[in-house]
Amino acid sequence: MTMPRRYFLKSGALALATMGLSPSFLRRTVFGMELPAAAKGKVLICLFQRGAADALNVVVPFGDKSYYQLRPNIAIPEPLRGQGTAAALDLDGFFGLHPSLAPLKPLWDRGMLAPIHAVGSPSSTRSHFDAQDYMESGTPDRKATNDGWLNRYLATSGTCEASCEPSPFRAVAMTQQTPRILAGSAPTVAMNTLEEFSVRGGGDQTARLEALYRTGSADVIHGAGKDMFEAVKMLKSANPLQYQPQNGAEYPKTPFGNHLKQIAQLIKSNVGLEVAFADIGGWDTHVNQGAATGALAQRLDDFAKSIAALTADLGDRMDDVVILTMSEFGRMARQNGNGGTDHGHAGAMFVIGGHVRGKQVYGTWPGLAPEQLYEGRDLALTTDFRTVFAEIAGRHLGASKMDALFPGFSPHGGLGLLG
What does DSSP assign to residue 50? Predict the structure, then answer.
Protein backbone atom coordinates (compact mmCIF):
# COMPACT_ATOMS: atom_id res chain seq x y z
CA MET A 1 0.00 0.00 0.00
CA THR A 2 1.30 3.46 -0.89
CA MET A 3 0.80 6.51 1.29
CA PRO A 4 1.11 10.21 0.39
CA ARG A 5 4.17 12.15 1.53
CA ARG A 6 2.02 14.40 3.72
CA TYR A 7 0.88 11.38 5.73
CA PHE A 8 4.45 10.18 6.17
CA LEU A 9 5.59 13.57 7.42
CA LYS A 10 2.69 13.73 9.86
CA SER A 11 3.39 10.18 11.04
CA GLY A 12 7.08 10.98 11.44
CA ALA A 13 6.35 14.00 13.61
CA LEU A 14 3.95 11.90 15.68
CA ALA A 15 6.57 9.19 16.08
CA LEU A 16 9.07 11.75 17.36
CA ALA A 17 6.58 12.99 19.92
CA THR A 18 5.34 9.60 21.12
CA MET A 19 8.82 8.17 21.39
CA GLY A 20 9.60 10.70 24.07
CA LEU A 21 12.15 12.79 22.18
CA SER A 22 12.31 16.29 23.57
CA PRO A 23 11.41 19.20 21.29
CA SER A 24 15.08 20.23 21.33
CA PHE A 25 15.86 16.97 19.52
CA LEU A 26 14.33 18.60 16.44
CA ARG A 27 17.11 21.18 16.36
CA ARG A 28 20.64 20.66 15.11
CA THR A 29 23.25 21.81 17.59
CA VAL A 30 26.93 22.43 16.95
CA PHE A 31 28.77 21.76 20.19
CA GLY A 32 31.50 24.30 20.89
CA MET A 33 34.86 23.21 22.25
CA GLU A 34 35.42 26.23 24.51
CA LEU A 35 35.26 24.03 27.61
CA PRO A 36 37.39 20.90 28.07
CA ALA A 37 35.76 17.64 27.10
CA ALA A 38 34.59 15.27 29.81
CA ALA A 39 36.89 12.35 30.35
CA LYS A 40 35.97 9.51 28.01
CA GLY A 41 33.27 7.28 29.39
CA LYS A 42 32.36 9.45 32.38
CA VAL A 43 28.68 9.34 33.33
CA LEU A 44 26.65 11.46 35.74
CA ILE A 45 23.37 10.02 37.04
CA CYS A 46 21.09 12.58 38.72
CA LEU A 47 18.24 11.28 40.89
CA PHE A 48 15.59 13.73 42.10
CA GLN A 49 13.54 12.93 45.22
CA ARG A 50 10.46 15.01 44.42
CA GLY A 51 8.35 16.20 47.32
CA ALA A 52 11.05 17.32 49.80
CA ALA A 53 12.70 14.37 51.54
CA ASP A 54 13.10 14.66 55.31
CA ALA A 55 16.87 15.04 55.68
CA LEU A 56 16.79 14.68 59.46
CA ASN A 57 15.37 11.16 59.27
CA VAL A 58 17.40 10.22 56.19
CA VAL A 59 20.82 11.15 57.56
CA VAL A 60 20.04 11.06 61.26
CA PRO A 61 21.91 13.48 63.59
CA PHE A 62 21.55 11.18 66.60
CA GLY A 63 24.47 12.97 68.28
CA ASP A 64 22.46 16.20 68.55
CA LYS A 65 20.25 15.97 71.66
CA SER A 66 17.84 18.56 70.25
CA TYR A 67 16.88 16.10 67.50
CA TYR A 68 15.02 13.88 69.97
CA GLN A 69 13.41 16.84 71.70
CA LEU A 70 12.01 18.09 68.41
CA ARG A 71 10.74 14.67 67.32
CA PRO A 72 9.50 12.66 70.31
CA ASN A 73 7.43 10.27 68.16
CA ILE A 74 9.14 10.08 64.77
CA ALA A 75 12.86 10.29 65.61
CA ILE A 76 15.07 7.35 64.63
CA PRO A 77 16.58 5.74 67.77
CA GLU A 78 20.28 6.00 68.45
CA PRO A 79 22.32 2.99 67.30
CA LEU A 80 23.05 1.81 70.85
CA ARG A 81 19.48 2.25 72.03
CA GLY A 82 17.61 0.86 69.08
CA GLN A 83 16.15 -2.58 68.90
CA GLY A 84 17.31 -4.55 65.88
CA THR A 85 16.42 -2.86 62.59
CA ALA A 86 14.69 0.10 64.28
CA ALA A 87 17.89 2.00 65.03
CA ALA A 88 19.96 4.38 62.96
CA LEU A 89 22.93 2.80 61.17
CA ASP A 90 25.96 4.46 62.73
CA LEU A 91 28.27 6.26 60.29
CA ASP A 92 30.67 8.32 62.38
CA GLY A 93 29.39 8.44 65.95
CA PHE A 94 27.20 11.49 65.29
CA PHE A 95 25.31 10.76 62.07
CA GLY A 96 23.55 7.58 61.01
CA LEU A 97 21.47 6.34 58.11
CA HIS A 98 17.77 5.58 58.38
CA PRO A 99 17.48 1.79 58.83
CA SER A 100 15.70 1.47 55.47
CA LEU A 101 18.91 2.72 53.87
CA ALA A 102 20.74 -0.42 54.98
CA PRO A 103 21.42 -1.43 51.33
CA LEU A 104 23.58 1.71 51.03
CA LYS A 105 25.67 1.03 54.15
CA PRO A 106 28.11 -1.28 52.27
CA LEU A 107 28.81 1.61 49.90
CA TRP A 108 29.75 3.75 52.90
CA ASP A 109 31.97 0.96 54.22
CA ARG A 110 33.74 0.75 50.83
CA GLY A 111 34.30 4.51 50.77
CA MET A 112 31.93 5.07 47.81
CA LEU A 113 29.15 6.98 49.62
CA ALA A 114 29.41 10.62 50.69
CA PRO A 115 26.33 12.16 52.36
CA ILE A 116 26.09 15.96 52.44
CA HIS A 117 23.99 17.52 55.20
CA ALA A 118 22.46 20.98 55.64
CA VAL A 119 22.66 21.47 51.86
CA GLY A 120 20.15 23.07 49.54
CA SER A 121 18.92 26.29 48.02
CA PRO A 122 19.49 29.73 49.52
CA SER A 123 15.96 30.60 48.41
CA SER A 124 13.51 30.91 51.28
CA THR A 125 10.62 29.47 49.26
CA ARG A 126 8.66 26.53 50.60
CA SER A 127 6.84 25.99 47.32
CA HIS A 128 7.59 22.60 45.77
CA PHE A 129 7.19 23.97 42.26
CA ASP A 130 9.47 26.98 42.74
CA ALA A 131 12.11 25.10 44.73
CA GLN A 132 12.34 22.29 42.16
CA ASP A 133 12.54 24.87 39.39
CA TYR A 134 15.37 26.73 41.12
CA MET A 135 17.35 23.56 41.79
CA GLU A 136 16.95 22.26 38.26
CA SER A 137 17.63 25.61 36.60
CA GLY A 138 20.58 26.26 38.94
CA THR A 139 19.41 29.84 39.52
CA PRO A 140 17.66 30.26 42.89
CA ASP A 141 14.97 32.93 43.00
CA ARG A 142 15.32 33.61 39.27
CA LYS A 143 12.15 32.46 37.54
CA ALA A 144 13.15 33.89 34.16
CA THR A 145 15.79 31.20 33.50
CA ASN A 146 14.56 29.19 30.53
CA ASP A 147 16.93 26.21 30.61
CA GLY A 148 18.33 23.69 33.07
CA TRP A 149 21.89 23.67 34.36
CA LEU A 150 22.61 20.21 32.94
CA ASN A 151 21.41 21.32 29.51
CA ARG A 152 23.72 24.32 29.74
CA TYR A 153 26.54 21.91 30.48
CA LEU A 154 25.66 19.86 27.41
CA ALA A 155 25.45 22.97 25.23
CA THR A 156 28.82 24.35 26.32
CA SER A 157 30.92 21.22 26.71
CA GLY A 158 32.10 18.62 24.20
CA THR A 159 32.70 14.93 24.74
CA CYS A 160 34.45 14.23 21.46
CA GLU A 161 36.62 15.86 18.87
CA ALA A 162 35.02 18.54 16.71
CA SER A 163 34.86 16.09 13.81
CA CYS A 164 32.60 13.58 15.58
CA GLU A 165 28.84 13.57 16.13
CA PRO A 166 27.43 13.54 19.69
CA SER A 167 25.46 10.40 20.47
CA PRO A 168 21.65 10.68 20.31
CA PHE A 169 21.81 9.13 23.79
CA ARG A 170 24.27 11.60 25.27
CA ALA A 171 21.61 12.80 27.74
CA VAL A 172 18.66 10.60 28.66
CA ALA A 173 15.85 11.18 31.13
CA MET A 174 13.81 8.17 32.21
CA THR A 175 10.70 10.33 32.40
CA GLN A 176 7.58 10.87 30.31
CA GLN A 177 8.59 14.47 29.56
CA THR A 178 11.89 16.30 29.48
CA PRO A 179 12.67 17.40 33.06
CA ARG A 180 13.47 21.02 33.82
CA ILE A 181 17.11 20.18 34.52
CA LEU A 182 17.61 19.00 30.91
CA ALA A 183 15.42 21.59 29.18
CA GLY A 184 17.23 23.84 26.71
CA SER A 185 18.94 24.04 23.35
CA ALA A 186 21.10 20.92 23.59
CA PRO A 187 19.46 17.71 22.30
CA THR A 188 18.17 15.33 24.95
CA VAL A 189 15.97 12.23 24.98
CA ALA A 190 13.11 11.56 27.40
CA MET A 191 11.46 8.16 27.48
CA ASN A 192 9.49 6.20 30.03
CA THR A 193 11.07 2.85 29.11
CA LEU A 194 13.64 1.54 26.65
CA GLU A 195 11.15 -1.03 25.44
CA GLU A 196 8.63 1.66 24.59
CA PHE A 197 11.23 3.67 22.70
CA SER A 198 12.42 0.77 20.56
CA VAL A 199 9.03 -0.85 19.94
CA ARG A 200 7.38 2.39 18.85
CA GLY A 201 10.18 2.96 16.40
CA GLY A 202 9.99 -0.53 14.92
CA GLY A 203 8.00 -2.30 12.25
CA ASP A 204 7.41 -1.85 8.54
CA GLN A 205 6.26 1.74 9.01
CA THR A 206 9.71 2.66 10.32
CA ALA A 207 11.36 1.25 7.21
CA ARG A 208 9.06 3.23 4.94
CA LEU A 209 9.54 6.42 6.94
CA GLU A 210 13.31 5.96 6.93
CA ALA A 211 13.40 5.60 3.17
CA LEU A 212 11.29 8.71 2.74
CA TYR A 213 13.36 10.82 5.12
CA ARG A 214 16.62 9.83 3.48
CA THR A 215 15.39 10.79 0.03
CA GLY A 216 13.75 14.01 1.14
CA SER A 217 15.20 17.48 1.46
CA ALA A 218 17.71 18.22 4.19
CA ASP A 219 15.29 20.24 6.29
CA VAL A 220 14.65 20.09 10.01
CA ILE A 221 12.25 17.14 9.79
CA HIS A 222 14.66 15.20 7.60
CA GLY A 223 17.48 15.71 10.10
CA ALA A 224 15.31 14.79 13.05
CA GLY A 225 14.05 11.69 11.27
CA LYS A 226 17.58 10.54 10.45
CA ASP A 227 18.63 11.01 14.07
CA MET A 228 15.53 9.17 15.24
CA PHE A 229 16.23 6.10 13.15
CA GLU A 230 19.90 6.03 14.11
CA ALA A 231 18.89 6.21 17.77
CA VAL A 232 16.38 3.40 17.38
CA LYS A 233 18.97 1.21 15.66
CA MET A 234 21.49 1.89 18.44
CA LEU A 235 18.94 0.95 21.06
CA LYS A 236 17.80 -2.18 19.25
CA SER A 237 21.39 -3.39 19.11
CA ALA A 238 21.41 -3.23 22.92
CA ASN A 239 18.51 -5.76 23.11
CA PRO A 240 16.53 -4.00 25.86
CA LEU A 241 14.09 -6.88 26.21
CA GLN A 242 16.89 -9.39 26.81
CA TYR A 243 18.86 -7.51 29.44
CA GLN A 244 20.08 -9.46 32.47
CA PRO A 245 21.57 -7.56 35.46
CA GLN A 246 25.01 -8.72 36.58
CA ASN A 247 26.85 -9.30 39.85
CA GLY A 248 23.75 -10.51 41.65
CA ALA A 249 21.95 -7.18 41.28
CA GLU A 250 18.24 -7.38 42.08
CA TYR A 251 16.27 -4.29 41.17
CA PRO A 252 12.95 -3.65 42.93
CA LYS A 253 9.99 -4.25 40.66
CA THR A 254 8.99 -0.60 40.88
CA PRO A 255 9.06 2.25 38.35
CA PHE A 256 12.18 3.70 40.01
CA GLY A 257 13.93 0.35 40.13
CA ASN A 258 13.12 -0.26 36.47
CA HIS A 259 14.41 3.16 35.46
CA LEU A 260 17.74 2.59 37.19
CA LYS A 261 18.04 -0.84 35.62
CA GLN A 262 17.59 0.71 32.20
CA ILE A 263 20.15 3.41 32.93
CA ALA A 264 22.62 0.63 33.76
CA GLN A 265 21.76 -1.02 30.47
CA LEU A 266 22.41 2.16 28.51
CA ILE A 267 25.77 2.62 30.21
CA LYS A 268 26.87 -0.94 29.54
CA SER A 269 25.60 -0.82 25.97
CA ASN A 270 28.16 1.88 25.11
CA VAL A 271 25.67 4.11 23.28
CA GLY A 272 27.47 7.29 24.36
CA LEU A 273 25.47 8.08 27.50
CA GLU A 274 27.00 10.90 29.53
CA VAL A 275 24.11 12.28 31.59
CA ALA A 276 21.15 10.27 32.92
CA PHE A 277 18.21 11.46 34.99
CA ALA A 278 15.41 9.77 36.92
CA ASP A 279 13.08 10.89 39.67
CA ILE A 280 11.07 9.31 42.45
CA GLY A 281 8.10 10.92 44.18
CA GLY A 282 6.29 10.40 47.46
CA TRP A 283 8.48 12.43 49.84
CA ASP A 284 5.89 14.99 50.97
CA THR A 285 5.27 13.42 54.39
CA HIS A 286 2.90 15.82 56.15
CA VAL A 287 0.91 12.99 57.73
CA ASN A 288 1.92 9.67 59.33
CA GLN A 289 5.54 9.91 58.26
CA GLY A 290 6.61 7.25 60.72
CA ALA A 291 10.04 6.57 62.14
CA ALA A 292 11.83 3.30 61.39
CA THR A 293 8.62 2.11 59.71
CA GLY A 294 5.91 3.98 57.86
CA ALA A 295 5.57 6.10 54.73
CA LEU A 296 9.09 7.51 54.70
CA ALA A 297 10.63 4.12 55.42
CA GLN A 298 8.80 2.61 52.44
CA ARG A 299 10.05 5.32 50.09
CA LEU A 300 13.61 4.91 51.37
CA ASP A 301 13.42 1.14 50.93
CA ASP A 302 12.71 1.48 47.19
CA PHE A 303 15.26 4.29 46.89
CA ALA A 304 18.08 2.39 48.60
CA LYS A 305 17.47 -1.03 47.03
CA SER A 306 17.32 0.51 43.55
CA ILE A 307 20.57 2.43 43.96
CA ALA A 308 22.32 -0.55 45.55
CA ALA A 309 21.25 -2.72 42.60
CA LEU A 310 22.49 -0.12 40.12
CA THR A 311 25.93 0.07 41.71
CA ALA A 312 26.21 -3.72 41.92
CA ASP A 313 25.06 -4.14 38.33
CA LEU A 314 27.62 -1.64 37.02
CA GLY A 315 30.46 -3.26 38.95
CA ASP A 316 33.84 -1.85 37.92
CA ARG A 317 32.15 0.70 35.69
CA MET A 318 31.31 2.64 38.84
CA ASP A 319 34.87 3.98 38.54
CA ASP A 320 33.53 6.20 35.74
CA VAL A 321 30.12 6.93 37.26
CA VAL A 322 28.91 9.46 39.81
CA ILE A 323 25.38 9.22 41.23
CA LEU A 324 24.05 12.50 42.62
CA THR A 325 20.79 12.59 44.61
CA MET A 326 18.81 15.73 45.40
CA SER A 327 15.51 17.00 46.78
CA GLU A 328 14.05 20.51 46.52
CA PHE A 329 14.28 21.25 50.26
CA GLY A 330 14.16 19.49 53.61
CA ARG A 331 11.39 19.42 56.18
CA MET A 332 10.58 21.23 59.38
CA ALA A 333 12.78 20.21 62.31
CA ARG A 334 9.85 19.75 64.69
CA GLN A 335 7.24 17.08 64.03
CA ASN A 336 3.72 18.35 63.43
CA GLY A 337 0.44 17.32 65.05
CA ASN A 338 -0.30 14.74 62.36
CA GLY A 339 2.75 12.58 62.97
CA GLY A 340 4.56 14.12 60.01
CA THR A 341 6.72 17.08 59.05
CA ASP A 342 5.96 20.25 57.13
CA HIS A 343 8.01 22.03 54.47
CA GLY A 344 11.44 23.08 55.65
CA HIS A 345 14.68 24.54 54.35
CA ALA A 346 18.03 22.72 54.15
CA GLY A 347 18.17 19.04 53.20
CA ALA A 348 20.59 16.24 52.40
CA MET A 349 22.22 14.79 49.29
CA PHE A 350 24.19 11.66 48.46
CA VAL A 351 27.16 11.44 46.12
CA ILE A 352 28.11 7.88 45.15
CA GLY A 353 30.89 6.63 42.91
CA GLY A 354 34.14 4.75 42.55
CA HIS A 355 36.24 7.91 42.92
CA VAL A 356 34.10 9.55 45.59
CA ARG A 357 35.89 10.35 48.83
CA GLY A 358 33.35 8.55 50.95
CA LYS A 359 33.15 7.48 54.58
CA GLN A 360 32.63 11.11 55.55
CA VAL A 361 29.53 13.24 56.07
CA TYR A 362 30.18 16.53 54.29
CA GLY A 363 28.94 20.00 55.12
CA THR A 364 28.98 22.09 58.30
CA TRP A 365 26.44 20.97 60.88
CA PRO A 366 24.50 24.04 62.09
CA GLY A 367 22.81 22.38 65.08
CA LEU A 368 19.17 21.98 66.05
CA ALA A 369 18.95 24.11 69.19
CA PRO A 370 16.20 26.76 69.00
CA GLU A 371 18.64 29.60 68.33
CA GLN A 372 20.35 27.57 65.56
CA LEU A 373 17.25 26.88 63.48
CA TYR A 374 16.46 28.80 60.31
CA GLU A 375 13.56 31.15 61.01
CA GLY A 376 13.20 29.34 64.33
CA ARG A 377 11.84 26.18 62.70
CA ASP A 378 14.09 24.55 60.07
CA LEU A 379 17.52 23.04 59.59
CA ALA A 380 19.75 25.94 58.56
CA LEU A 381 21.60 25.96 55.23
CA THR A 382 25.39 25.77 55.32
CA THR A 383 26.15 24.45 51.79
CA ASP A 384 24.64 25.90 48.62
CA PHE A 385 23.55 23.12 46.26
CA ARG A 386 25.43 24.86 43.44
CA THR A 387 28.69 24.20 45.27
CA VAL A 388 28.01 20.46 44.97
CA PHE A 389 26.73 20.60 41.40
CA ALA A 390 29.68 22.72 40.24
CA GLU A 391 32.22 20.38 41.82
CA ILE A 392 30.67 17.31 40.19
CA ALA A 393 30.42 19.05 36.81
CA GLY A 394 34.01 20.24 36.99
CA ARG A 395 35.85 17.36 38.62
CA HIS A 396 33.85 14.54 37.03
CA LEU A 397 32.58 15.84 33.68
CA GLY A 398 35.35 18.33 32.90
CA ALA A 399 33.42 21.63 32.83
CA SER A 400 35.55 24.65 33.72
CA LYS A 401 33.62 27.90 33.19
CA MET A 402 31.05 27.65 35.95
CA ASP A 403 29.59 31.06 35.10
CA ALA A 404 28.00 29.38 32.07
CA LEU A 405 26.37 26.72 34.26
CA PHE A 406 25.56 28.82 37.34
CA PRO A 407 25.38 32.50 36.36
CA GLY A 408 26.42 34.87 39.10
CA PHE A 409 27.62 32.14 41.46
CA SER A 410 31.18 31.39 42.56
CA PRO A 411 31.61 27.94 44.17
CA HIS A 412 34.74 28.89 46.17
CA GLY A 413 36.60 25.61 45.86
CA GLY A 414 34.01 22.95 46.59
CA LEU A 415 33.88 20.29 49.31
CA GLY A 416 36.53 17.86 48.07
CA LEU A 417 34.02 15.14 47.25
CA LEU A 418 35.99 13.47 44.47
CA GLY A 419 39.45 11.93 44.47
Answer: T
